[in-house]
Amino acid sequence: MKQDLKNVEGLVLRAYNIKDSSRIVDLLARDQGRISFMARGARRDKSPSLNLTQPYVEGRYNLQPGRSIYYFKDGQIQNAHLGLRKSIRRLALTEFSVEALTSVVFTEGDPILYDFMVTYLGTVEEAGESDLTRLLGAYLFKLVSLVGFRPSLGSCLECGGGVKLPLVFDLHGGGMVCDDHPGRPGQRTLSMDQYQELVAYLTQPFREIREGSLEEKGELYRTTARLCLAYFQIQTGRDRFKSLAMLQDLGLV
Hints:
Mean pLDDT: 94
Radius of gyration: 20 Å
Strand content: 15-25%
Strand order of the largest sheet: 1-2-3-5-4
Number of helices: 7
């Protein structure tokens, strides 16, 4: 039988309105993984769960087990992440980022992944509008690495030799290949700037990536973000995202 879950540290990924005033919440819990729970009456004006069940809220939750789902008992907001709603581009980026996360994260708890997501959202809140595309590329490259598809950027996939010109990235193989080997579909020739971007995405924390962003490099960030998206889609097999069209319309990718 399921036990009560007390003081669960979690981030609301999505909330679905049901019936007259209730919500089903998809929560990413730091130690328990993804949990679904129902918050009865959450949409009433004076409900204690009204704000706690909003998307992207970070809080602590006490949950009671039911027959097939947990039920919200009470909780406390730690960070409402209101800055994510400062602009339509920031909100669209957040929605897509959550959709990408839920496409590869299922039920098991992973504190490293949880901290990664919370740190990323905090950086998006602080970022300027011109920083968002660079953060998107870094997010996708880091996320795909965390779920088991870390690319090899320091040596050739085929022979283990050092990286040299021309710089070729193999989307299917998962890393760099030198020109001693025949080309194949799914390989992209990179500029030195693109290669350095990919290295930065893997090695630098989000805050450094944001602080190093330059507005005049917007096109570089967009082409690199598209490369990171293609790599994510190929490696994970998740290639359809409802929120991607909005990102494209807003010029983020």
